[in-house]
């Protein structure tokens, strides 16, 4: 996976979002799995994409996960930040969903403190969130608890 600029990542997110809209979320999970494998094969530790302040030891669990399992673990990590209804990130993601996948991608990367080298991994995450919807994404946490 070559490093992407934010503009390249947004364009890739638009393309993936179109593909997911046509073929379903399984495409997003498959792309997520591939992006994580590419990220690690470039020598970046998976702990790099764990949001600031979260449990870095979960990186081991993430390494062994396929796309869907990775999503389950990772979405639990980011849910607290994204689903705080009074929080800035929640507002940014909510307004971004109504505008574009690029806005959601940008909000996730900047709001969670994810390094730019991880843009390739964040693309399918943003696409999955936009296709799930923020309210449904947050409701999944309520069902688990």
Which terms summarize this structure?
mainly alpha; 145 residues
What's this model, at a glance?
With 145 residues, this protein is mainly α.
Could you characterize what this model shows?
With 145 residues, this protein is mainly α. The protein has one domain. It is 73% helix and 0% strand. It has helices spanning 6-23, 25-41, 59-63, 67-83, 88-99, 101-112, 119-132, 134-144. Helix 1 (6-23) packs antiparallel against helix 2 (25-41) and helix 2 packs antiparallel against helix 7. The longest helix has 18 residues, at 6-23. It is globular and about 35 Å long.
Estimate what percentage of residues fall within beta strands. Answer: under 5%
Low-confidence parts lasting 5 or more residues at pLDDT below 50?
A: none
- Helical region count? 8
- Main β-sheet description: none
Order of helices and strands: HHHHHHHH
User: Mean of residue pLDDT?
Assistant: 84
Helix content: over 70%
Question: What's the number of extended β-strand segments?
Answer: 0
State the domain count. 1
Radius of gyration: 14 Å
**What is the approximate shape?**
globular
Class by alpha and beta content = mainly alpha
Distance between the termini: 36 Å
